[in-house]
Amino acid sequence: MILIDGKNISSKVKDEVKNEAINLANLGIKPGLAVILVGDDKASLTYVNSKEKACKMCEIYSVKKTLPASTTEDELLNLIDELNKDDKIHGILVQLPLPKHIDENKIIEKIDPKKDVDGFHPINVGKLSIALDGFVSCTPAGVIRLLKEYEIDISGKNAVVIGRSNIVGKPMANLLLKENATVTITHSKTKNLDFYTKNADIIVVAIGIPNFLKADMVKDGAIVIDVGINRLDDGRLVGDADFENLKEKASFITPVPGGVGPMTIAMLLNNTIISTKNFLKEKK
Ligand code: GUN
Predict the structure, then answer these.
(1) Ordered structural domains, the chain, with CATH
(2) What are the phi and psi torsion angles at 189 (to 5°)?
């Protein structure tokens, strides 16, 4: 079994990002990312702070906008409008979930698709589905990067994605399809899940249930990518895959923590670099 070291690969990506950011700054354009947090969800605050810290480390200008939970939809739309027009900002991220009184789709659609470094705007989602260049959701983009770094051949493989969220499952399936895998999307309503997983060469599990994927559900030599981050009552962080038993059976597996998790922010910074380069190209 080979352990996929997301911490190491994410450091490599961040080093590349830092070099690119310095080069862009020397050309007179420092990459800039705005991160918006509405409300006081603790996990979201932790994510937003990590994103800000990562920007600093990688020479990316970062703006953190922390708004109270009482913020209206219009106030948030206006803030996005300002950031859309701000030439110092090349990426805009609105941390999800948003408070219930705000329509998430409306907010996402307000972000200029050219600054949508999360890849959530319908324009970018659509581009991915027809394999055009655009921003791709960071976690699934990170998974593909990990597979490539470990020289795992995706073409022609049976890939099973467990979970169909807009952030992970659906873009993951589209990315695997783009890499010529034969892709099956499964989810909480799938019957006989193990019929699919037992035939899978690559399994990406993103269902949000601790230790959901068991060793008897996979074939020998399967590649297991665990996107889950679940906090147990005793404080331990575990994935969606039963790592202890799967590690005996898998050919490659990502640990939690230290697998897919660290890749998300690295890919976000990478998307911010891409956005800045696009901006520079358009200006010329
Ligand atoms: N909430 C959970 N994951 C994400 C993400 O990747 N981006 C944003 N904006 N919010 C999230």
Answers:
(1) 27-112 (3.40.50.10860), 138-261 (3.40.50.720)
(2) -100, 0
